[in-house]
Amino acid sequence: MEGFNLKNTFFSCITIIVLILSMLFFYEPAQNLLCSFAIFERFLINTPKVCSLFDTTRLSRYKGVDGGKIYLSILGNVFDVTEGRRFYGPGGSYSGFSGRDASRSFITGLFDEENLTDHVSDMDPNDLIGLDTWINTYKKKYKEIGKLIGRYYDSSGKETDYCKLVFEKIKSSKMAKVAKNEEMAKYPSCNIEYVQENQKSKVWCTKLSGGIQRNWIGVPRKLQSLDENGKLSIRCACVQLDTLSKAELMHINEYEDCDANATTCYVTIS
User: Fold this and answer.
1) What Rg value do the Cα atoms of the chain yield, rounded?
2) What does the pLDDT look like over 103-140, one tens digit per residue?
3) Long-range contacts, stretch 198-202, CB < 8 angstroms, 24+ apart
4) Signal sequence: where (predicted)?
5) In sequence order, what are the residues at sequence separation of 6 or more whose Cβ sits closer than 8 angstroms to the Cβ of residue 116?
């Protein structure tokens, strides 16, 4: 009798699982078995952050043909952009984004096969920040409906190593940009004008040089710093000498043939 009950319980569990998978399979007409199983797996581990998962084949069906829904993906995040049909639907100016993940094209603006891809890890920091801006814009304007199985998310909706790498690069790029903005506020760029007569550049400081409004003028100096790609660069900066520490002064050099207190100098810039 006990064995019979265990057998019944086992078959009842199997029946329930089959029913759940069937419901997920028919949740939407284009749903396939892979996505159904993925959703069920996510249900079991209790991490249903989005309502569905897509593979590339399933996502490609949502291009707005014959008035159908329009989905697109950015960095593996799938959005319903149907309300923007005149832009994303057939013939629309952004139709190249529909039914796929073309993250690279969001930055390059090109719609050839080389750019209609979700590969972005080789892009420069400003481009990655731009992608982060795009994805946040879509999250505010459209409904996020799922994740794309592939480069960014696995079959259970978990982040891949590639996904973690890209978002770590975005985070570090944003931090570097903040640091750069702080540097520009502290060391605004000089005004620069090339003077043909003496084949030198005129560099000078004002209370608005470098586009930074301030209540001090400063003096022109050669500033060594790291650019957004982490490379050493030298630029003309207006500095307040009396506010700098010895450590900060180590990265600042005077121009030759320029008075130490002059706000305007004629120098050779290589």
Assistant:
1) 28
2) 999 999 999 989 999 999 999 999 999 999 999 999 99
3) 198/266, 200/266, 200/267, 200/268, 201/266, 201/267, 201/268, 201/269, 202/264, 202/265, 202/266
4) none
5) 96, 100, 102, 104, 105
